[in-house]
Write a structure and sequence with these properties.
Elements lengths: L4 H13 L4 E5 L10 E10 L5 E9 L8 E10 L5 E5 L6 H4 L5 E10 L12
Antiparallel strand pairs: 1-4, 2-3, 2-6, 3-4, 4-5
């Protein structure tokens, strides 16, 4: 039995639309980060039942030899007992942020920049 192409396309779009993971190429000259930089943004949601969702977004322009950088993101989930439950893409372990703090959420950001003489020679002086 052949599947109708429209049904196949719609079901694929549904799966992608509800996914919590992504990766795509970015132009590091135009994202406000610059070559030689890596920015990691971690966020967490501590649910009232004790479960947790730990998301991570990574903007990576650290490889100076590349012509493009990338952005990726994902979420790791933990059950109410603190056990790993599911993950989609690169999440992180936020259980320490949620311990004793149900019903809260937060975020943190870290950026590292190294000299990148290929793309920005003036930054390496």
């Amino acid at each position: 039995m052949l599947l109708n192409p429209v049904c196949l396309l719609l079901s694929s779009a549904w799966m992608i639309g509800f996914s919590e993971s992504y990766i795509f190429s970015i132009d590091c000259d135009n994202v406000g980060l610059g070559w030689g930089s890596l920015k990691v943004e971690d966020s967490w949601v501590c649910h009232a039942d004790g479960s947790a969702a730990c998301s991570q977004k990574k903007t990576d322009c650290s490889d100076c030899g590349d012509t493009a950088g990338y952005e990726s993101g994902g979420t790791s989930n933990y059950d109410k007992y603190g056990r790993f439950d599911t993950a989609v893409g690169p999440g992180w372990d936020c259980r320490s942020q949620c311990k004793g703090r149900p019903g809260t959420s937060g975020s943190k950001e870290n950026t590292r920049t190294d000299c990148c003489s290929i793309h920005r020679p003036s930054d390496c002086n």
